[in-house]
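Write out the bound-state structure for flavin-adenine dinucleotide.
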Amino acid sequence: MKTHHQILIVGGGNAGITAAAQLLRANQQLNVAVIEPSDKHYYMPAWTLVGGGVYNMKDTIHNEADVIPKEAKWMKDAVVSFEPGENKLTTQSGNEYSYDVLIVGAGIQMNWHLIKGLKETLGKNGVTSNYHKEYAPYTWECLKNLKDGDTALFTAPSTPVRCGGASQKIMYLFGDYCRRHNIKAHIEFTSAGTVIFGIKKYADELMKMVNKYGIQLSFKHNLMAVDGQNQMAAFRVTDANGVVSEVQKKFNVLHVTPPQSAPDYFSKSALADAKGWFDADKYTLQHLRYKNVFGLGDILNTPNAKTGAAIRKQTPVLVTNILAFLKNQPLTAQYNGYGSCPLVVGYGKLILAEFGYDNKVMETFPFDQSKPSWLMYQLKRYVLPWLYWHKIVKGQM
Ligand SMILES: Cc1cc2nc3c(=O)[nH]c(=O)nc-3n(C[C@H](O)[C@H](O)[C@H](O)COP(=O)(O)OP(=O)(O)OC[C@H]3O[C@@H](n4cnc5c(N)ncnc54)[C@H](O)[C@@H]3O)c2cc1C
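---
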């Protein structure tokens, strides 16, 4: 079957749905279709709180049918290949779809399989991850069962990740929980990176949290393998002289942030850059080679934080530019790289990092957002989820 749509959207996640809703709010006459295989839609930013035992997983899940704008057509199917030279793509069911404009909101792929032994043990033996809907509730089980003398390791990979802060937010919740319940556990951040956060203003405050909770920082530690039964994790460690060795660490809890990449079905396409990501103009979000193709969200190769907050600022730019493109007008809207990282640093405490390209701090509120704030925690816990389901996916902000 061959079908044509004026605007075809790949992915009905945060990016795809927000784009569809804002386009249709701008012009109800547009012919917009979304290809999305899942019948569920997730609000992932709350998975950190699920792992911390203060949010219900079921409240992060809605039916996809309820978030897709009613004026848009939903194809419950999965893209398998792109042929941008012919303005078309092919899906798993064998259908071909052509378009005037394509929006790619394909998200990011969790590469669990790249860590030896991980898939076999995730969800048991104290091995968990808030990056997966199945296991965020298990993180809370692990935290509740933590005892004096236990070791909890929190990993971060060397690849780009969605919401980089999520690998450490849960660590601070562990730290705060131990402090409140007088549990003497060893907490360690085993990160392939070299710093706690890329912006000094926020890094300085995070270091205060690290010291307060007695967290050990082990940088240049890249998780390679997990032996769940024996609760051992193997890291490739690079020392100050660049010498690489393997280090084994015993754990009772291992929270894994997996290596991530663009989805395989996308990264092998002509739309991908050399590393597999969507090859975008970082200001207009237009594809660098295929001018009727635009990208949005985690799939982009733009140097911003891969967050829902970034999508909130990208979408109006994308919509303005697509409407201009359809009228053969120049693209004037520009994305400034804004992203935000609501760094939960304890129960009732949050540092709201907001920044754009070149790590330029771009705070919203008239106070120093690097200081842990009860008010900002309430924003994350109550206000942002409400805004997501009632305003953002409806294209109203
Ligand atoms: C633990 C955690 C904490 C986070 N915390 C925050 C936070 O505090 N603040 C914040 O702003 N962001 C946060 N984020 C990040 C935020 O959730 C993501 O940046 C955002 O969801 C990305 O949206 P997206 O549309 O690009 O990707 P997704 O929402 O993943 O959408 C991609 C869609 O593509 C679909 N798809 C898959 N295969 C195919 C196919 N073959 N064809 C078509 N479609 C396909 C998928 O089903 C999915 O619906 C967090 C994420 C996690 C995991």
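---
The domain at 113-257 is CATH 3.50.50.60 (FAD/NAD(P)-binding domain).
The chain has a mean pLDDT of 97.
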